[in-house]
Design goal:
Layout lengths: L4 E3 L4 E4 L5 H11 L4 H9 L4 H14 L4 H7 L4 H19 L9 H12 L2 H10 L5 H12 L4 H14 L4 H11 L7 H13 L10 H15 L5 H10 L1 H16 L7 H15 L2 H11 L2 E3 L11 H11 L4
Parallel strand pairs: 2-3
Antiparallel strand pairs: 1-2
């Protein structure tokens, strides 16, 4: 996974859609192995759950090749323990890849589980040291998902997370993954969760985009099982009047009372891509203009192409965005 990789072919920065100028400056240093600057950013974000979740996620990707040095930092530092656990999860998922299980060989699965198993202890310790922090519990969702934990364990982690922050965007994104059909849930489960989450989202909160995320997961699954061209599948799915009406209501609720949020660009991509494929180009244009040239590595654009950077660049050209 890329923390924030410039795709020279498309001109897009691929990894995640977010806004945090301090993180922009720290990521190259952390990738080069200079870890103290990243640790300081994680410490500074204590109490700001959204910013802390974002920083832990991106800095974990950047530090995935430096877990040995990070483990030495973590010997007497709970923030570094959180970072170490998150980095080991990123390291493990990079070994596994994002393919369906049937495409992952047994040897790769064993390596994946071996690395992933080492993430739980530092995350549990961080959760103990910071009892009000939801971020260790968000990372534990990814650990449990990869370890093929049962629904009872996943539900228990979700309960711990929401007891600390009922509206954490990263937590909702992770929870949606645990409910997807590809990970043992179902289309209806993830849709119900997404709709319920959006219904109680605070004004201007990007959790309003959970229905768009759920619909992309379902459309991606349908494309995987279809012999039709991907573009045709996406246009048919998001052009459906029921889907487009639901997402229009959710997007209007989100944009009605905007507020600063580090994950707002992610919501803009999810809504913007849905409207683009659904043929609602004016809506898509406004949202993707806000999203800019930093984009998620996976959804929504990976559902449309194996080269999501190029596909997003094409969408921007189609919409007259430079």
């Amino acid at each position: 996974m890329a923390a924030d990789l410039l795709d020279k072919t498309s001109g897009m920065r691929i990894g995640a859609a977010w806004h945090d100028p301090a993180l922009d400056q720290a990521l190259p240093r952390v990738k080069a192995g200079r870890l103290p600057s990243g640790l300081e950013l994680i410490k500074q974000a204590r109490g700001d759950n959204e910013l802390r979740a974002l920083r832990v996620d991106l800095l974990a990707t950047a530090a995935a090749g430096h877990t040995g040095a990070l483990s030495r930092l973590a010997q007497d530092d709970a923030d570094a323990l959180l970072w170490l656990g998150a980095a080991r999860i990123k390291q493990a998922w990079a070994i596994r890849g994002g393919s369906y299980a049937k495409y992952v060989g047994a040897k790769r699965f064993l390596s994946f589980w071996d690395v992933l198993a080492q993430a739980e202890e530092p995350l549990r310790q961080a959760a103990k040291e910071f009892p009000d922090d939801p971020v260790p519990w968000d990372r534990l969702q990814w650990h449990a998902l990869g370890m093929q934990a049962g629904r009872d364990e996943l539900d228990g982690i979700w309960a711990e997370l929401t007891a600390r922050d009922p509206h954490l965007y990263a937590g909702h994104y992770s929870r949606a993954q645990t409910l997807c059909a590809k990970w043992g849930g179902s289309h209806q489960e993830v849709l119900d969760f997404a709709r319920d989450s959006a219904a109680v989202a605070p004004p201007g909160d990007p959790i309003s985009a959970m229905p768009a995320l759920a619909h992309f997961e379902i459309a991606w699954s349908e494309d995987h099982d279809s012999e039709r061209p991907t573009q045709e599948v996406l246009e048919s799915y998001f052009g459906d009047s029921v889907v487009s009406a639901e997402l229009s209501r959710a997007a209007d609720a989100w944009r009605g009372r905007p507020r600063p949020h580090p994950r707002s660009p992610d919501a803009a991509h999810l809504f913007g891509a849905a409207f683009y494929f659904g043929g609602h180009l004016r809506r898509a244009q406004g949202l993707l203009a806000e999203a800019g040239k930093r984009m998620p590595e996976i959804l929504p654009w990976a559902a449309a192409s194996l080269t999501p950077g190029r596909r997003y660049a094409r969408a921007r050209r189609d919409l007259g965005l430079t």
